[in-house]
Amino acid sequence: MTGATLLDRPDASDATRDMVFLPSGTFRMGSDGHYPEEAPVHRVQVDGFWIDRTPVTNAQFRAFVRATGYVTMAERRPDPKDYPGALPYMLQPGSLVFKPPKGPVDLRDFRAWWRFKFGVHWRRPYGSGSSIAGLDEHPVVHVAYADAAAFAAWAGKEIPTEAEWEYAARGGLDGAAFAWGTRSRPAAGTWPIPGRAPSRTRTGPRTATSARPPSPPSRRTATGSTT
């Protein structure tokens, strides 16, 4: 979340607690070697802004829900008028969960490792029987853009623009392909899947936002534990 519309100068206050100020600057935005919509690389000017040091946590999102009674998109039953021809049993709320692939898959098709599951939302991140008990400081998940915008408005902030987020996530590494530099590390952040052969790996478990090792403040938890 940013505080760009709240403050126009880098003066720390209660409103900017747990935020970091990024001064104005220019950087090369986008990529010519990944998804087509990211091309071409182009230079962008960004005004100075405040941004949260970490992703929004379960505890913070819970406070928002309790104060407003907000219901997330993943908890809302789809309107049949929006999905003509859909079978009744399919019109249930839910979200996407990670599905370990059985082998090499086409990375261009996200359905190879994600599946839609009924009953999944921020309080039940894996569906029925799961919970966020003991995970107050972990990033909130299964939050749609509309949910994030509602939280930001309640908090007196706003969602960063694409340029602001990329500027912050790069942490000064202008032109780097990855948050850590230019060298590809395709196996970074993967661990053996419990009960599977050692060669089978999965994305690493989420961790508390405060548990990440020291890094430039604008890049802290920008990659890794949340999708």
In order across it, which strands form the biggest sheet? 1-4
Name of the CATH architecture: Alpha-Beta Complex
Look at the helices and sheets and give the structural class: alpha+beta
Task: Name the beta content range.
Answer: 5-15%
What is the count of structural domains? 1
| Total count of helical runs of at least 4 residues | 3
- The CATH superfamily is identified as paralog of FGE (formylglycine-generating enzyme)
Q: Please outline the major beta sheet.
A: 2 strands, antiparallel
**What is the C-alpha radius of gyration, as a whole number of Å?**
19 Å
CATH first level: Alpha Beta
| Low-pLDDT residue intervals, each spanning 5 or more residues | 4-8
Overall shape: it is globular
The count of β-strands is: 8
Cα end-to-end separation: 15 Å
Helix content: 10-25%
Protein architecture, described:
This protein has helices spanning 58-68, 145-154, 162-170, and strands at 19-22, 25-29, 42-46, 49-52, 94-98, 114-118, 190-192, 201-203. It has a single domain (14-219), classed as Alpha-Beta Complex (paralog of FGE (formylglycine-generating enzyme)), CATH 3.90.1580.10. The strands form four sheets. Strands 1-4 form a two-stranded antiparallel sheet. Strands 2-3 form a two-stranded antiparallel sheet. It contains three helices and eight strands. The chain is 13% helix and 15% strand. The chain is α+β, with helices and mostly antiparallel strands and 227 residues long. It comes from Methylobacterium oxalidis. Residues 185-227 are annotated as: Disordered. One of its GO terms (molecular function) is formylglycine-generating oxidase activity.
